[in-house]
């Protein structure tokens, strides 16, 4: 793995996109094309986009006004990192593992992303916050 968490074999094929809140439609379009190009079935792309949209929206509404995403394939998986410069987040529990209240109207993004992805890891610290998701292709 390099310092960004991308395996050296994937670094050459990784694709990145910097975005803001207004760019979220472009993020979804970019990610859908990348997912399909990397072998994700058309049936799976919808769930992938819902999870990605939840995490990307969180990044630019709670983390920082600009964020970036990186996609690459690792074996039979599509891996997506979404990173923002937010450093003030100190979750009490493991993010995305506590179900939202029954009548919640917000605060469900990481829960939804965890339900739709094969794996989700959240890292937060002095360099910002990165949410890594893995989807089977």
UniProtKB/TrEMBL annotation:
Q: Which domain of life does the UniProt lineage start with?
A: Bacteria
- Tell me the ranges covered by the Histidine kinase/HSP90-like ATPase domain, including all copies: 20-135
Keyword tags = Kinase, Serine/threonine-protein kinase, Transferase
- Molecular-function annotations in GO: protein serine/threonine kinase activity
Transmembrane is among the record's keywords: no
Q: What is this protein called?
A: Histidine kinase/HSP90-like ATPase domain-containing protein
Classification lineage: Bacteria, Bacillati, Actinomycetota, Actinomycetes, Streptosporangiales
């Amino acid at each position: 793995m390099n310092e960004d968490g991308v395996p050296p074999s994937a670094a050459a094929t990784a694709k990145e996109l910097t975005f803001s809140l207004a760019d979220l439609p472009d993020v979804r379009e970019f990610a859908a094309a990348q997912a399909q190009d990397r072998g994700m079935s058309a049936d799976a792309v919808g769930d992938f986009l819902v999870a990605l949209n939840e995490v990307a929206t969180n990044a630019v509404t709670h983390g920082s006004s600009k964020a970036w995403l990186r996609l690459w394939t690792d074996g039979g998986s599509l891996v997506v990192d979404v990173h923002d410069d937010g450093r003030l987040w100190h979750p009490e529990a493991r993010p995305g593992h506590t179900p939202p209240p029954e009548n919640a109207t917000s605060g469900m993004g990481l829960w939804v992303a965890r339900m739709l992805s094969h794996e989700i890891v959240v890292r937060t610290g002095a360099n910002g916050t990165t949410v890594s998701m893995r989807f089977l292709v």
